UniProtKB/TrEMBL annotation:
The chain crosses the membrane at residues 16-34, 55-75, 81-102, 114-132, 138-158, 170-189, 209-228, 240-261, 295-315, 327-349, 365-391. The keyword Transmembrane helix applies. GO terms for biological process: ammonium homeostasis. Residues 24-389 form the Ammonium transporter AmtB-like domain. One of its GO terms (molecular function) is ammonium channel activity. It comes from Synaphobranchus kaupii. The keyword Transmembrane applies. It is a multi-pass membrane protein. One of its GO terms (cellular component) is plasma membrane. Its main location: membrane. This is Ammonium transporter AmtB-like domain-containing protein. Keywords: Membrane, Transmembrane, Transmembrane helix.
Amino acid sequence: MAPKYAPSLRGRLPPMTLLLETIFISMFAFFVEYEDPAVIRKIPLTDIYAEFQDVNAMVLLGFGFLATFLVRYSFSGAGFTLLVTSLAVQWAILLDGFLFTFHRGKIRIGMNSLATANLCAASALISMGAVLGKTNPAHLIIMALLEVTGFMANRWILQTFLKVQPIDAIMMLHVFGAYFGLMMSWVLYRSGLEPRHEKEATDRRTGLFATMGALFLWMFWPSFNSVLIGQTHLERKLQAISSTYLSLATSTVAAFFVSVVTSPRGKINMIHIQNASLAGGVAVGVAVSAVDVPWVAMVIGLSAGVVSTLGFRYLKPHLRVVFKCHDTCGVLSVHGMPGILGWAAYFLIQASRLPDITAVLGFTIYHLCTLLLTLGLSLGLGALTGILIKWNIWRPPQDRMCFDDQAYWEFPHLAVHK
């Protein structure tokens, strides 16, 4: 019997990508131009280009290699990361321009807008991690466009109505991306992948590539958290870089000792190290504008590493069994919980600086609204996206073809020549 869904992508991927690129190029032709030369002379490209490249390497190499951990899905993990990023940054540039910098009918592209687009693409890649291996490229493109749209809308609401600082609104990308992806995963849950899919496994080779991805992310995370802080605020920039580095260091130590303590045989789990070592960068990033002393950053990192490792050890399996939410990459433990931990740390730091209880209560309500709004929008839009891509028109992969590169990629070296 012929398979229910043909493996060829010809009927879905080329028309979708060609249509999107036609729309994007048309919009760029009418609305987008390069930054004014006077502005470029005032803020030299060298001030931000190196950090932009750090973020670029983090998004493509870091997330790309980290997604190669599945033994039969490494081509797709790296390749689909490139595809999603390439489309997401174009859409993010347009949305960021229309919502925040639109002036006299034009959007001006500068290094800041490119860096912001990369951060928005990272949010889409976080969401992708929750459904990795269970979706096809058409699904991921739809997910990326809707996720970036929702994240930009969330930023606009936070900055316009709640007067949240731009960097604080953008750094909610971890919370937004994680819970968007988790809700998608819940909607797309398949009983046919239970208990554990035979192809959902890793080996030493793919584990090594994933570790390389984690190291890229670890190295470049200080730039990720500081890239949008201007050169006119060098003190804040130094604080962000140093806080991120110290937080990553302590979260890494926490990942090692919690992994050993919770192991039945007292051994280190490499998956914990690959992921929980990054939790400090997530947590301190959400609180980056409030952290101004080193020991606070270290406490945040240590707490994030503990929470993330415990999440991988105990929460991820229960999430799958009890809540029917199959989180492939563990984005809840890497981004979701550390993101909320960073939000709580920001609240405690800022509340401790307020003069009286009335001000604390007012700030509590205000800060709680930022989280509830982000969670509500991410969960709602994630559910809507999941329902949309669940339609058979998008030809979802069969259960037996999940976590398998051969559904999408050519393997000439495996071909049988007659």
